[in-house]
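Practice problem: predict the structure.
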Amino acid sequence: MTMDLEEIKRYSRQLVLPDFGSVEQRKLKEAKVAITGAGGLGCPVSTYLTLAGVGRIDLIDMDSVDLTNLNRQFLYGPKDIGNGKARRAAQVLRNLNPTIEINGINRKITYENAFKILKGYDVVVDGTDNFSVRYAVNDACMVNKIPLFHGAVLMYEGRATSIIPEKTACFRCIFPEAPPQGMVPTCREAGVIGSMTGLIGSIQAMEAVRYIVGHKIGLLNRLLIVNADTMDFYKVKIARREDCTACGSTFVPKPVDEVCEIPVEPKVKGDK
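Answer:
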């Protein structure tokens, strides 16, 4: 797959990087990426993958634009309220880069359909906001052997990790069980600052791009935690669990009830 002169000029600022040339750009052009969720994380992830030149991007989300989204979901405006996010985001992204394929898929991901929906992608980036979908996406990626780039944001805190099947800890290794209903605040209850979604989404996109082109990525078996209250960035060491039902020796399907957002404290040990 070759690049024309317009593409060479479009991507010229990354093509001049010492370890990023035409070979790496072609790898991006040949990549097929699914983004689950077109909200606070999905907006920055899809934008930067689009601008980087990923050849095919599928945005999967069944939600519609709401006025409360507009403090962080910058692909939408007041005129988009009530319209489906995935298809509207795809329209905006096509204007940013008409040289690639971008599809908006208005569909809800469940434990029952995730394994089929996500099969065949080179990379999945998770921008969902509830545990039921996160576990479904994680398990589908582990079974289908698809690298997964996870992110989550709540209040002034964000987290990200990069998951490579059979090599790193997966989401279930970190959180074997979903928290009980009522123990985890939602965005509506606790709030979220828009710039944190931009930060974590950009980190997810950076890790995904580096993986696709074959560069070393920094969040393997590490959970990055960002605290905007103190502006601390630190990594927590994580490890595969032999008894993990998703990435262990024997896969065990474990759908969970819908629980929004992330736990206040991750139950993992680590160091700064």
